[in-house]
Design brief:
α2 (about 30-40) runs antiparallel to α5. Helices cover about 25% and strands about 30% of the residues. The chain folds into three domains: about 5-110, Gcn5-related N-acetyltransferase (GNAT) (Aminopeptidase); about 135-295, Aminopeptidase; about 305-395, SCP2 sterol-binding domain (Nonspecific Lipid-transfer Protein, Chain A, 2-Layer Sandwich). The chain contains twelve helices and 19 strands. The relative contact order is 0.15. It is of the alpha+beta class and about 400 residues long.
């Protein structure tokens, strides 16, 4: 069978959202559904139809994302779902292929997503491009190193996050360019960040906030939720979950972390942070930080010729790359990548390749995570010229490591 695919009209939103709800096993509250609808770009939705029934869906957020050395338009893929009754019929493949063709037609060179299941998206050319540490810290053992940054001019102020939204937005806009994978937040993204109705709390209490500021203004903020608990002996055993901590400088960052780690009645703090988060260096006893690794952002290079020159490189490189791509055939050829200080070019060539790789490998390296050597050792790409993989991996690496920080 074939399933016609097209964008939905706004009137079809209830059927579209019902597919998501069924596939994810989630029943959103009406206010969450309305918030979600308000953020939907209906011309960037796609639905696969079985007669009058919507059987599968996906959508895109039009985003501006930080990449090494700059920023570029990125298709933020979201809402990928197929009804359980219609699995194994090729609907997902048809949706993903159509979506990538549409992204290419719009001129976006890169797509990105958060994967609900990490086994899925490599089939469509996405590579794991960023990682996250889920950390747990016991507050009684959370002392910082003696030389941790400190500014006596800085102070903390307890705030209600919604009441200082302008301060939060301004601060975030000033730091978003510092790490690849971060992306600009529009009004709807901020609505989601600050959402604090009962369905948004997931068993935690109200969203709380701290500002780190001096006479010149706000230099950082923390958003978090808490759970008040006592053990059987009446000893405090509260938990605090950091939603995000953003800061313009190391002293503000350190002060905000102390603000959550020193919270009265709290014995455990949890957070999701980049793999190279400064917090890991601040702790005097780093073994007290318990961390679990997970994949975070996945990236798809949709247009090799446009994407590779759109970022900066950490070292010069001049190499011929043979790209394998059976979903976006315009990429499947040999490309000469030449990059130096401040400029890069990528042109089609017929020369013998220095290395051959699947397009997913380029996606995994695009934001600077630098796992090409691992893929070579795993036998997942081919090196024809000795040292060419190391040279490309070095050139595409970046510090700080990529991390998006907010699921879309």
């Amino acid at each position: 069978m074939t399933y016609p695919i097209r964008p939905i009209a706004e009137a079809e939103w209830p059927a579209f959202s019902a597919v998501l709800s069924e596939a994810f096993g989630w029943t959103p509250a009406p206010l969450q559904t309305e918030r979600w609808k308000a953020h939907t770009e209906f011309d960037r939705t796609l639905a696969a139809f079985d007669g009058d029934t919507i059987a599968g869906v996906t959508a895109v957020f039009s985003m501006t994302m930080t990449v090494p050395g700059g920023a570029l338009p990125v298709a933020g893929v979201t809402s990928v779902s197929v009804l359980p009754s219609h699995r194994r019929r090729g609907i997902l493949s048809s949706l993903m292929r159509r979506q990538l063709a549409d992204v290419h037609e719009r001129g976006e060179a890169v797509a990105a997503l958060y994967a609900s299941e990490s086994a899925i998206y490599g089939r469509y050319g996405y590579g794991k491009a960023a990682s996250e540490l889920g950390v747990t810290i016991t507050t009684s053992a959370s002392a910082f190193v003696k030389n941790a940054p400190h500014d006596p001019e800085l102070r903390l102020r307890v705030v209600t996050p919604a009441e200082v939204r302008q301060d939060l937005e301004k601060l975030f806009a000033g730091v978003v360019a510092e790490r690849p994978g971060r992306y600009a937040r529009d009004e709807q993204f901020w609505n989601a960040v600050l959402a604090d109705e009962e369905p948004d709390r997931d068993g935690w209490n109200a969203l709380r906030g701290l500002l780190a500021e001096d006479a010149s203004g706000v230099r950082g903020y923390a958003l978090f939720r808490m759970k008040s608990r006592w053990d059987d002996d009446g000893i405090p055993a509260g938990e605090l979950r950091v939603q995000e901590i953003e800061a313009r400088d190391p002293a503000a960052y350190a002060l905000l972390w102390r603000g959550v780690l020193d919270r009265d009645l709290v014995t455990k703090v949890t957070a999701g942070v980049p793999v190279d988060a400064p917090l890991t260096a601040l702790l005097a006893n780093p073994r007290q930080l318990r961390a679990g690794w997970s994949d975070e952002l996945w990236v798809r290079v949709v247009d090799v010729e446009k994407a590779l020159p759109a970022r900066s490189y950490a070292a010069p490189v001049d190499t011929v790359i043979e790209v394998e791509d059976d979903v976006c055939p315009w990429n499947a050829r040999r490309w000469r990548l030449t990059a130096g200080a401040g400029s890069a070019s990528c042109t089609p060539v017929d020369a013998a390749p220095d290395l051959t790789l699947p397009v997913s490998a380029l996606g995994s390296a695009y934001l600077g995570d630098g796992e090409l050597g691992t893929l070579l050792d795993a036998g997942l790409l081919k090196e024809h010229t000795p040292g060419s993989v190391r040279a490309l991996a070095t050139a595409m690496s970046w510090s700080p490591k990529p991390w998006a920080g907010l699921v879309f």
